[in-house]
Amino acid sequence: MTYVFEPRTDEQFQQQIEERRREMLLQDGEYDFTVKDAKQMTSQSGNEMFKLFLEVYDSKGKPRLMFDHILLNGNWDFKLKKLCDTLEISEMYKSGKLEADYFINKSGFAKICQENDRKMGWQNKIESYLIKSKDVISTDEIIDDDLPF
Fold it and tell me: What is the number of alpha carbons within 13 Å of residue 147 lying toward its C-beta?
């Protein structure tokens, strides 16, 4: 018995792989995450940085593993500040001294996008770290002196 099929080129297979990979990515949006691990490293260009391993939760709560590099040079230090803000460790940032361990098991909120990297193809990228707005108003914030009791 002879099987009949449509032969495809390597380019067609590569395109199919890229399409499937892109379907598996998180859509552009804002997501909760937890830092599962963090390392102090030196980048290829010699800059100090933190490499973060993040567990990002999709709309169904399913975790996805991502990583992010936080460079400590003057061009990217705003990202470090925003990271510390979302992880609620701003006081440590203000001290000017941080260790990778400070980030581990902390949770925050990030804006994530899809990016077509020349070497890696389509992947998710942390665009920025965000401070999640508070949905609950503290009773200390409500002041009304005209109450009859």
Answer: 5
- Quick: pLDDT tens for 55-77: 999 888 889 999 999 988 777 78
Can you point out the beta strands (E) in 2-120? 29-42, 48-57, 63-71, 107-117
DSSP type of residue 26: P
Write out the two tokens for 101: 């361990």
Residue closest to 132 by CA, chosen among 70, 80, 88: 88
Give the span between the Cα atoms of 130 and 65, in whole angstroms: 19
Q: CB-based burial of residue 66 (10 Å sphere; 0-12 exposed, 13-18 middle, 19+ buried)? A: buried
Q: Which fold has domain 29-133?
A: OB fold (Dihydrolipoamide Acetyltransferase, E2P) (2.40.50)
Please tell me the pTM assigned to this model: 0.74
DSSP state of 96: T
